[in-house]
């Protein structure tokens, strides 16, 4: 998996810690957040805040977004539990989109004997049959369990620790760095709060902590009197995957506290294997809506360090459906800018040469 | 669909608040005036549908205030002025040279102050210059700005010194400064084009839906805007007998600006391009185009009258400022509505899958 060719420095599969020239690369660490067993207790949010001394975000107001009063990830919120309430119709749509995903030629959920005939589409439960007939998953009875009238999706979101991290690439000071564990961390004593990383993250994760001025995308809250002063003002802040704890061979606070093991921490490669097993297991139970997010190293960010098992389309949880690290197009942009610069020079030269007459 | 006895104790839904997350939003309507070509062979592609998490943004807008928009404008004025100054230096147009040099240093200084003010920790601005990162347009740009300011500063000091009758306390430095004046003009001009163009990459090299979708053509808009703005400034400050080249550059700038903007919008995803037409940014960009055309026509028709030239110049400066603020604000708006992130991404994903590329999705069944 190690690929040091420059061709994969901007996009594609690679080992990020090795690319960052760490002399002692450690095993890449990550999270696997299995949302199918999340109970929405928000213990991860609390543990993260406590361990990292993150101040309060906002004014503790109720948002009327189900049980989610945290709203989003931000400078002082590094774990965010999303709550989505869905009715029967929406559940059906999720099932269907999951089936479509399976039919895109993902052979692992098929038994070997089924691999011979079916072309694309044939293996899908394309008709949407919900009763009886064993389907393309082999002998396993894939009849979905009774469609519930209602379901609750709960998912703990976190920084993805991208293989190709837009935030890190665009940071001009080097404050954002790749650790020996392949994770992405802000050095708050280097960051000068330029905010470029905020625009660079395709997942809307990193944020500049409010510096007390009225700036967009910084939520601090008005009624702050009753709590201690906010530390690290004006610099970018986000999940560090508990870098300090990793250095001591400890599990990150959120994973350690999660009572259902919905948040799993470990070596990235193992987590990918676990995630694949888990999604296959759910498919075998007929839960075709289960899918992985971030497990594909060919995706737009080279795969993520923090993977998710989702039960609906990513955007339902507030995740982008097709993120792409902006730097992947940087060579193209640089080329276009160079041509434009040349055009400007030519125009200026022409203006003066023409003016000679 | 009551499923729980506790539902009775739930507060009533606030009136008028649609449960966006519960249902699929209406299928995307084609934007009027948006591109529809290419859809014919895309019948395989399902219409992009739009669901979001309570309408909350997917990406975050950068915490940039209008200082950054002002910097986009000022950097452009400085870049264009650097080229005009060199041209004037080489063709012996003394007033144009002096005014372009002074304009350049004023613009670049103001721009630098605006940039530093916008930082979360302004006292650490120098951290940008402690490293050089090719992948970071902000880093590369800081170095371009620094290099440009060096040359522009030396030429400007010489001009000011001459203006006040060699009364600046330069002492033995004066002959040195005079000796490097010419090369400094060249040096500034060398970094002038990059100074005008890099800001486009700075905006586009982000996850911001509108800025990123414009990444192929925004540099052309920005260098054109820089050319017409610097020419406009020269037309305001300098007598008409020396501004012939500035007027010519202004006309080319206007043509480039209007054409590049149109071409860019046509090539962008129609949804990602929407913020350029709607609301306040749309209004700004509409007026930017009108002012640019007025200034360009003015430069041709009235350019030989001192007053007409100055008025046209003002129109051009205004046009450039509006273009920068419009593009800047459109991007900020595009980050606030999840639709601009989700719909183009879904569409491009579906298009790739329809074209048979099924191995590069972030969402996988295994
Ligand atoms: S999710 Fe965003 S903040 Fe986290 S590593 Fe990726 S680009 Fe950076
Ligand atoms: S805000 Fe800080 S971490 Fe983010 S890009 Fe700027 S210097 Fe880097």
Automatic annotation (TrEMBL), chain A:
GO biological process: cellular respiration; formate oxidation
List of residues binding [4Fe-4S] cluster 2: 48, 239, 242, 254
Chain segments annotated as transmembrane: 337-355
SUPFAM superfamilies, alphabetized: 4Fe-4S ferredoxins
Signal sequence, start to end: none
Biased composition (Low complexity): 121-136
A GO term for molecular function: metal ion binding
Subcellular location(s) of the protein: Cell envelope
Family matches, as Gene3D superfamilies: 3.30.70.20
GO cellular component, one term: cell envelope
Bias-annotated ranges (Basic and acidic residues): 219-231
Keywords assigned: 4Fe-4S, Iron, Iron-sulfur, Membrane, Metal-binding, Repeat, Transmembrane, Transmembrane helix
Residue stretches in coiled coil: none
Keyword Iron: yes
Cofactor binding note of this UniProt entry: Binds 4 [4Fe-4S] clusters per subunit.
Pfam families reported for this sequence: Fer4_11, Fer4_4
Cofactor(s) essential for the protein: [4Fe-4S] cluster
Binding sites annotated in the UniProt record for [4Fe-4S] cluster 1: 38, 41, 44, 258
Binding-site residues for [4Fe-4S] cluster 3, renumbered to this chain: 159, 162, 167, 201
UniProt keyword annotation of DNA-binding present: no
Top-level taxonomic group: Bacteria
Region of interest (Disordered), residue spans: 105-144, 209-231
Residues reported in the UniProt entry to bind [4Fe-4S] cluster 4: 171, 191, 194, 197
Every 4Fe-4S ferredoxin-type domain range: 29-58, 150-181, 182-211
The protein, known as: Formate dehydrogenase iron-sulfur subunit
Species of origin: Knoellia remsis
From TrEMBL, chain B:
Matches recorded under InterPro entries: Electron_transfer_protein (IPR052049), NrfD-like (IPR005614)
Basic residues composition-biased segments: 17-32
Signal peptide segment: none
Sorted UniProt keywords: Cell membrane, Membrane, Transmembrane, Transmembrane helix
Membrane topology, record value: Multi-pass membrane protein
Subcellular location: Cell membrane
Protein name, UniProt field: Polysulfide reductase NrfD
Organism: Knoellia remsis
């Amino acid at each position: 998996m190690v690929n040091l060719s420059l061709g994969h420095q901007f996009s594609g599969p690679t080992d990020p810690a090795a690319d960052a020239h760490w002399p002692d690369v450690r095993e890449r660490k990550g999270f696997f957040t299995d949302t199918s067993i999340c109970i929405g207790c928000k213990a991860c949010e609390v543990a993260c805040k406590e361990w990292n001394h993150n101040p309060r975000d906002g004014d503790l107001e109720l948002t009327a977004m189900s049980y989610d009063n945290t709203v989003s990830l931000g400078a002082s919120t590094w774990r965010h539990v999303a709550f989505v309430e869905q009715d029967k119709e929406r559940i059906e749509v999720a099932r269907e989109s999951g089936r479509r995903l399976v039919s895109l030629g993902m052979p692992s959920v098929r038994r070997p004997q089924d691999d011979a005939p079916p072309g694309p589409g044939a293996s899908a439960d394309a008709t949407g049959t919900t009763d009886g007939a064993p389907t393309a998953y082999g002998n396993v009875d894939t009849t979905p369990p009774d469609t519930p009238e209602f379901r609750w999706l709960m998912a703990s979101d976190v920084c993805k620790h991208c293989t190709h991290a837009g935030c890190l690439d665009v940071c001009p000071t080097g404050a954002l760095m790749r650790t020996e564990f392949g994770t992405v961390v802000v050095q708050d004593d280097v960051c000068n709060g330029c905010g470029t990383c905020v625009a660079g993250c395709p997942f809307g994760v990193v944020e500049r902590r409010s510096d007390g001025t009225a700036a967009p995308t910084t939520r601090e809250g008005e009624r702050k009197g009753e709590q201690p002063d906010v530390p690290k003002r004006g610099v970018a802040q986000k999940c560090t995957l508990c870098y300090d704890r990793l250095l001591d061979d400890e599990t990150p606070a959120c994973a350690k506290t999660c009572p259902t093991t919905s948040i799993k921490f470990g070596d990235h490669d193992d987590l990918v294997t676990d995630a694949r097993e888990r999604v296959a297991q759910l498919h075998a139970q007929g839960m075709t809506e289960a899918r992985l997010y971030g497990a594909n190293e060919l995706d737009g960010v080279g795969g993520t360090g923090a993977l998710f098992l989702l039960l609906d389309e990513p955007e339902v949880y507030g995740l982008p459906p097709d993120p792409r690290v902006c730097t992947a197009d940087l060579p193209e942009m640089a080329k276009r800018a160079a041509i434009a610069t040349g055009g400007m020079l030519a125009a200026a030269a022409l203006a003066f040469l023409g003016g000679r007459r | 669909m009551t499923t729980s006895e506790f539902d009775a104790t739930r507060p009533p839904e606030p009136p008028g608040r649609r449960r966006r997350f519960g249902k699929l939003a209406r299928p995307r309507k084609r934007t009027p005036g948006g591109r529809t070509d290419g859809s014919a062979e895309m019948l395989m592609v399902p219409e992009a549908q739009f669901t979001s998490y309570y309408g909350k943004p997917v990406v975050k807008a950068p915490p940039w205030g209008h200082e950054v928009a002002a910097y986009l404008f000022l950097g452009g004025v400085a870049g264009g002025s650097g080229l005009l100054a060199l041209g004037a230096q080489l063709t012996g147009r003394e007033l144009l040279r002096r005014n372009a040099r002074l304009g350049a240093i004023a613009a670049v200084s103001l721009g630098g102050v605006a940039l530093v003010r916008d930082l979360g920790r302004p006292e650490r601005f120098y951290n940008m210059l402690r490293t050089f990162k090719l992948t970071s347009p902000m880093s590369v740009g800081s170095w371009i700005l620094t290099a440009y300011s060096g040359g522009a500063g030396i030429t400007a000091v010489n001009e000011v010194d001459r203006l006040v009758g060699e009364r600046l306390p330069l002492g033995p430095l004066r002959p040195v400064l005079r000796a490097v004046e010419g090369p400094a003009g060249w040096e500034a001009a060398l970094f002038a084009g990059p100074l005008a163009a890099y800001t486009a990459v700075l905006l586009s090299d982000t996850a911001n839906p509108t800025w990123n979708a414009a990444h192929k053509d925004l540099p052309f808009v920005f260098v054109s805007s820089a050319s017409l703005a610097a020419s406009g400034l020269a037309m305001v400050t300098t007598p008409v007998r020396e501004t012939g080249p500035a007027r010519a550059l202004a006309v080319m700038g206007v043509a480039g600006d209007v054409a590049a903007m149109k071409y860019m919008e046509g090539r962008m995803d129609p949804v990602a391009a929407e913020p350029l037409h709607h609301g306040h940014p749309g209004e700004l960009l509409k007026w930017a185009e009108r002012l640019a055309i007025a200034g360009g026509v003015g430069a041709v028709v009235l350019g030989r009258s001192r007053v007409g030239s100055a008025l046209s110049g003002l129109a051009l400066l205004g046009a450039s400022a509006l273009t920068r603020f419009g593009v800047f604000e459109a991007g900020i708006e595009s980050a606030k509505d999840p639709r601009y992130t989700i719909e183009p991404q879904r569409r491009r994903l579906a298009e790739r899958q329809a074209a048979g590329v099924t191995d590069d999705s972030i969402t996988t069944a295994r």
